[in-house]
Amino acid sequence: MNNKISFAQKLKQFFKSLFKKADKLVFPPNIKCLSCYRDLPQKQEIELCEDCLKKIRFINEDCCCKVCGTRLKQTNICSNCSKNKRNFDIARSVCVYDEIAVKLIINFKFNGAPYIHKTLANMMAEKYLNLKWKCDEVLFVPLTPKKQKKRGYNQTELLAKHFCEKLNLPLVCDAIIKTKETKQQSNLGFVDRQENIKQSFKVTEKAKIKGKNVLIIDDVFTTGATSGAISRSLKDAGAKKVFVLTFASTELKNQFEFIKNDKKDK
Ligand SMILES: [Zn+2]
Ligand SMILES: [Zn+2]
Predict the structure, then answer these.
(1) Distance from residue 94's CA to the centre of ligand 1 (Å)
(2) pLDDT tens digits for range 180-192
(3) Ligand sitting nearest the alpha carbon of 251
(4) What is the pTM for the complete model shown?
(5) What CATH number is attached to the domain comprising 243?
(6) CA of 227 to the centre of ligand 2 (A)
(7) pLDDT in tens, 23-48
(8) Ligand 1 centre and the CA of 36: distance in Å?
(9) Is 167 exposed, middle or buried (CB count within 10 Å of its CB: 0-12, 13-18, 19+)?
(10) Is residue 142 part of a domain?
């Protein structure tokens, strides 16, 4: 009798392991480059092949604006930051918003590929550690409920969630809301962009912000209008310092070209 049971159990185990193997064959783990879709040798933190990774233009501290992190030939203060007072204390981006970065962001934001967030957030986490910033908590850029419903997800929330899990930082989800739908930022210059988005964010829980060093996570830094408007609200609510970390930032000479082309900007 005992032998029979053990035989039955063995049989069960055999089929279980067989199904597991078959499952892996039918549903292989997603190990393709997110940019060129070439197979990757194994599952990796940053799901990009070597060739695509080489094409990304990373922004280092020795070649960016000290304030907003826009890529420059050497460390300096860019024309936007020297002419206008920024509401945030410091902003940095992982890379320049061109070629591979544009492709990743467009697919992530508009083509229904939210799974791209892990690779982007992992790269942002690496940047955060290199910068040695000490932030108390993390916020993401809220969308109006209407916009979120239309897209199905808030892309910056996905980024921030994974970023916080990775670095074990507290994520504050409900302290700030977007109160009005802003008109499309396309064809607007630096000043008009700031004006358009000004006062469209509201801090609903000041206690969560007061006296804190807050980090805002966003996908793309263009003129900094969005992060600037959020920073203003956070500072008004008593935030000590506001840091901004984005995946990519447009180059100065390209900024207004991107504004013109980016019809779907928030
Ligand atoms: Zn590739
Ligand atoms: Zn700057």
Answers:
(1) 18
(2) 877 666 667 777 7
(3) 2
(4) 0.83
(5) 3.40.50.2020
(6) 13
(7) 544 444 558 999 999 999 888 999 99
(8) 4
(9) middle
(10) yes
